[in-house]
Amino acid sequence: MRIAPVLSAEDGALAKMMTPFKFFIGGPTGSGTQGFEWIHKDDMARAIRFFVENEATEGPYTVSAPGTITNRQFADALGDVMRRPSFFRVPKVMLELVFGEMSVVLWGGSTVKTDKLEAAGFKHDFPEAKLALQDLIRD
Q: Cα–Cα distances in Å, from 55 out to 62, 71, 121, 134?
């Protein structure tokens, strides 16, 4: 499996991305135009079970939410859900300090296709960023 960053409000990338938003200084990283891949923790767990239960799933699969969004779109969705602005750009050096080697995922961006996973019959419970964030970040 090729796995996109797994979203969880308790730990990982999302928990760290939430911190600047809590202080009203959140926003996209870099230009914000780079692709941003992600998957809800529950969809990730369901995907693993899907692979175990379906012997026909052989070879590499990309496990990510369907479709591609930009880093700006994700930051805007996060700001909406947290009821915070999303206009401060997070500089690359700050990402490297907070995320270390994983920072390349945030400022470098990526675009993947999940067509193979969907063609095998997997259905995401959280196909949209805002829906996933609303589920993960409860008041």
A: 17, 35, 13, 33
